[in-house]
Specification:
- By secondary structure, this protein is an alpha/beta fold.
- It is built from 17 helices and 15 strands.
- The strands form five sheets. A four-stranded parallel β-sheet has the order 4-3-9-10. Strands 5-6-7-8 form a four-stranded antiparallel β-sheet, with helices on one face. Strands 12-11-13 form a three-stranded mixed β-sheet.
- A hairpin with a 2-residue loop joins β11 and β12.
- α1 packs across α9 and α16 packs antiparallel against α17.
- The chain binds one RNA strand through α1, α7, α10, α13 and α17.
Length: 476
Amino acid sequence: MNPTIFNTLTRKKETLAPAVAGEPFKMYCCGPTVYGPAHIGNFRTFAVQDVLRRILEESGMKVVHVRNITDVDDKTIRSSRAEGVSLKEFTLKWERKFHEDCGKLGLLVPTVEPRATEHIAEQIAMVEELVKSGHAYATPDGSVYFKISTFPEYGELSGLDKSSLKTQNVNSAGEANSADEYERDSVSDFALWKGRKPEDGDNFWKSPWGEGRPGWHIECSAMAAKYLGKSFDLHGGGIDLCFPHHENEIAQSRCSLHVDTPARFWFHSAHLMVEGQKMSKSLGNLYTLDDLAAKGFTPMQIRFALIAGHYRQQLNFTFKGLEDAKSALSKMQKSLTALLDALKISKEDFAKFVHAGARFEGTDFEPAWNSLCDDVNVPKALGEIFSAFADKSARKTLADIEAFGGLMYALGLDVFADAHDEVIEEAPEEIRALAQERWQAKKDKNFAAADALRGKIEAAGWQVFDTKEGFNLKKI
RNA sequence: GGCGUGGUAGCCAAGUGGUAAGGCAAGGCUCUGCAAAAGCUUUAUUCGUCGGUUCGAUUCCGACCCACGCCUCCA
């Protein structure tokens, strides 16, 4: 079954396949601006893209996945200068942190992860072509702007009316857009190249228009074209990038590369709310992986929570939701363990089934796979996974286990991850002595004393629970 | 103002012109001295409101109410 997605460009659900049969599926996803730790909102988008890539691979396609690193912009320059370190040193630090977090969340490493600063020449070449073909103009301050009036299709992706953009003089925050700051012909013309300013410090490059740096949008167009060709299969990003970023990319790529469209499919994921509110610094709800780890949540639980809602639906990220994810993951682990035991398959052998290319036809997990192929419907697929486990009438076979392994690959879930990572903390000597004392009291049927001792142990921060031949201690 | 999305049980969340998946939580039962854990099980006459189309609508149409997103900071 071929996967489908909702294509923002056509506003229809469409079947995904490479443009040319037999070629890899080429996808470009807008990556992070590395000026600080990425938050869960960023990771929702990357996790959804990761699931999409895994579904494509699971369905038998080879995927070339390009995700850029934006290592030059206002924020990176400002922050690096504030810290008194070079832009390179600053961005590399946050790039490493980003990669570390991606690894924890089980995100597959992109095929290519190009940095904007290492593709200045490509960006300049693209801007030059735009100037040459009359789609861009330079201003006296050494900047270059894209002239939107030369591109009638502008606004096609986001459905925004170009004429209204032109007259837009106030942004959503009610602030006046500084129309004359850069001497633009039109307020909606966007920067391809920014002339050097004092606050850029020593972060500038030479160009035909003088010293400066690339604009926000040109890097993606240039790098996508370099690594995936003038026209590739899919372009993804958060919904906020639909306009203006992707709209601008389309304008740049079409006008400089002279193609019908840079990407056939456009894939946008909805934003995240936190406890019912928009994420923002002022509300203090911009959680990072480290913030959540400090509260005791594991990356796998976070991944589950991030993908458990449909990607085109705004997700309300809550601590309750994280607890739910934890329980659901644990239930999945128990169900799988019982199944593996019944079929005498070890966890190690099961791990070998977690790969691309599983067969789903005729298995109990076929409905779940079909749901994933239907516009990445993860919530439906999860429901069908639990239903399949609950259905005892169908006796599971090795084929079912293999299919489940395929689903785990597609979702990027490792149900045993937290079990592996869980450190069985050894209780201190005095706690163990108390527990031993309680065990003896219990054996002597002195239950009042046993319960009193349990209270003492719990007060000390440990929980005791009995097994057939003894007791276990767990830190609360 | 323009464009767009959504309102389904206590919470999260699928779904369909033919009578509501799943997860969490909660209750009951089994097990246990009691717990914990585990297993089994129960829980929406109803899908924002009001109309319309239809044999039949949560699903289609219209109006309204509410929430949210984008309209050059944002994943």
